[in-house]
């Protein structure tokens, strides 16, 4: 049987470059797909900021020049095989130089337009012609548009199908339509008749939603939410129109890496069978590392998050005084908007035994917070999927979440599921709702320890491996391949 050839296109993937959850998805999903049925490869920009060790392992595949935005541009294709999966890197130092994958937003529009155009231009010269290109987020939004327009008359491209995954609808690649029209080289009618236009602006993601053969997003609830005006970011009508080709698939996590029984970042290992003893030891170790009071009876709440309004920080601030006093302790790791960083750091400085704030990112500390916290706080305004709550469940830290998007799909709240519950959730986006759910968590922790332990075991037994999600993606690929 011929294998279905799938090419992932994305702006980032672990372990090469990561700024958020997109990288985790693109770096993990290809390995979860059945290699006997699918030949899956990945193409990324060849940023100069990629780790030198990986750059040294790359093999030069080919180079050529392509006409883009007014002149001929160099395109190099390099490759690296990691655990059986080939990663291609599209090289152009003019566009992909610098200290990080993203620079100036306006320039990012141009460089990712170049990435989309050049990715398609590179395919005839590779020994791999994809049956399906799986595009991820706005950075790859022009690939379906180029495929149907610029490359549409070329027989080489006519059999290629596209899947577009929305990781976060809020970020769409918006800019002036004249600017996007000029740099992309796409027909001006697409920018004045709707396909790549939002109001008076150009929109890269809208082109993908318009032209992709299939559209996915990263949870069932988020798929329904973004078809409404409140969450739809002006794309709700178009997504409703594409409903027949639009589905939600919850992300997974690497359960071999995120495993409290083997995680090298932990000084104490445990599983569902000894969760009470193991969590107590991990909690004591975390309190010691962070300088928190050695209080085994405190409800230690962890947060590993971007510190932004989307993540619910505007609800946390009014309750900081409460969270920084007994019976609570709060351990925060993250970075984001300066105002939230200042408030959390200031609270930690004033209440060092009750609150710890680490501004930045530290992978080992993040894992120790998942393991050592009793509960994990994610009161998001919206959350397409969320990975942190999946990791928290794996480590037996009970999520305290707002019931939205992927949080709603993955956390079973005590007030609705009883003894089958895996965490706590509130509905209305207000500080009163968060206050209420904190009370519920504290009452369960302090007054019903057997129920708390049962919930921890329930949480740790949830299956959020990539295998379940991979089966659903494979079904989409099969459908497109057999069209």
Brief write-up:
The protein is α/β, with parallel strands linked by helices. It is 39% helix and 22% strand.
Shape: globular
Instruction: Count structural domains.
Output: 2
CATH architecture heading of the largest domain: 3-Layer(aba) Sandwich
Query: Largest beta sheet: what is the strand line-up?
Result: 3-4-5-2-1-6-7-11-12
What is the H level of CATH, i.e. the homologous superfamily of the largest domain? Answer: Glycogen Phosphorylase B
First-last Cα distance: 17 Å
Number of strands: 18
Q: Under CATH, the topology of the largest domain is which?
A: Rossmann fold
Beta-strand share of residues: 15-25%
**Any low-confidence stretches, pLDDT <50, length ≥5?**
none
Helix content: 25-40%
What does this structure look like?
The structure is a single chain. With 483 residues, the protein is an alpha/beta fold. The protein folds into two domains: 4-252 and 467-481, Glycogen Phosphorylase B (Rossmann fold, 3-Layer(aba) Sandwich), CATH 3.40.50.2000; 272-463, Rossmann fold, CATH 3.40.50.2000. It is 39% helix and 22% strand. It contains 21 helices and 18 strands. The protein has helices spanning 21-32, 52-57, 93-96, 105-122, 142-148, 177-184, 189-192, 204-211, 220-225, 236-241, 275-290, 313-316, 320-323, 338-350, 363-372, 388-394, 405-410, 414-417, 431-447, 449-460, 466-481, and strands spanning 4-9, 38-45, 59-68, 71-82, 85-91, 132-136, 161-166, 174-176, 197-198, 201-203, 214-217, 246-248, 299-307, 328-336, 355-359, 375-378, 398-402, 424-426. A nine-stranded mixed beta sheet has the order 3-4-5-2-1-6-7-11-12, sandwiched between helices. A six-stranded parallel beta sheet has the order 15-14-13-16-17-18, with helices on both faces. It has a three-stranded antiparallel beta sheet with strand order 8-10-9. Strand 16, helix 16 and strand 17 (398-402) form a beta-alpha-beta unit. Helix 4 packs across helix 5 (142-148). The radius of gyration is 23 Å and the shape is globular. The mean pLDDT is 96.
């Amino acid at each position: 049987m011929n294998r279905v050839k799938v090419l992932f296109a994305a702006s980032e993937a672990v372990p090469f470059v990561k700024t958020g959850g997109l990288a985790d998805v693109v770096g993990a999903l290809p390995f979860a797909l059945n290699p006997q049925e699918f030949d899956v490869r990945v193409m990324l920009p060849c940023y100069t900021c990629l780790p030198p060790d990986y750059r040294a392992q790359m093999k030069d595949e080919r180079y050529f020049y392509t006409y883009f935005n007014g002149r001929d541009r160099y395109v190099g294709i390099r490759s690296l095989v990691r655990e059986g999966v080939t990663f291609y890197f599209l090289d152009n130092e003019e566009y992909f130089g610098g200290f990080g994958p993203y620079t100036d937003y306006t320039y990012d529009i141009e460089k990712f337009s170049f990435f989309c155009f050049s990715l398609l231009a590179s395919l005839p010269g590779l020994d791999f012609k994809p049956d399906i290109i799986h595009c991820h987020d706005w950075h790859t939004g022009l690939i379906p548009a180029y495929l149907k327009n610029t490359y549409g008359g070329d027989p080489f491209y006519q059999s290629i199908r596209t899947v577009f995954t929305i990781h976060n609808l809020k970020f769409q690649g918006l800019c002036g339509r004249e600017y996007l029209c000029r740099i992309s080289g796409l027909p001006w009618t697409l920018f004045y008749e709707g396909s790549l236009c939002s109001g008076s602006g150009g929109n890269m993601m809208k082109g993908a939603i318009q032209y992709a053969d299939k559209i996915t997003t990263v949870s069932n609830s988020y798929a329904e939410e973004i078809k409404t005006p409140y969450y739809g970011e002006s794309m709700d009508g178009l997504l409703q129109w594409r409903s027949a080709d639009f589905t939600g698939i919850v992300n997974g996590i690497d359960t071999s890496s995120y495993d409290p029984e083997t995680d090298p970042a932990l000084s104490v290992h445990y599983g569902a069978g000894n969760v009470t003893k193991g969590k107590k030891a991990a909690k004591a170790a975390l309190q010691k590392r962070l300088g928190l009071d050695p209080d085994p009876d405190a409800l230690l709440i962890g947060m590993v998050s971007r510190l932004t309004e989307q993540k619910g920080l505007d609800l946390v601030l009014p309750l900081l005084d409460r969270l920084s006093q007994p019976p609570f302790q709060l351990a925060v790791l993250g970075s984001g908007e300066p105002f939230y960083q200042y408030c959390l750091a200031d609270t930690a400085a004033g209440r060092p035994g009750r609150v710890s704030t680490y501004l930045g990112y530290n992978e080992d500390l993040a894992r120790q917070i998942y393991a050592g916290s009793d509960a994990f706080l994610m009161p998001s305004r919206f959350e397409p999927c969320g990975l942190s709550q999946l990791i928290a469940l794996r480590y037996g830290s009970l999520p305290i979440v707002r019931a939205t998007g992927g949080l709603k799909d993955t956390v079973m709240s005590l007030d609705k599921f009883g003894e089958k519950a895996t965490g706590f959730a509130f509905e209305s986006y207000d500080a009163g709702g968060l206050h209420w759910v904190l009370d519920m968590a504290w009452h369960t922790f302090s007054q019903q320890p057997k129920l708390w332990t049962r919930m921890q075991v329930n949480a740790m037994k949830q299956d959020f491996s990539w295998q379940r999600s991979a089966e659903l993606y494979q079904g989409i690929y099969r459908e497109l391949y057999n069209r």
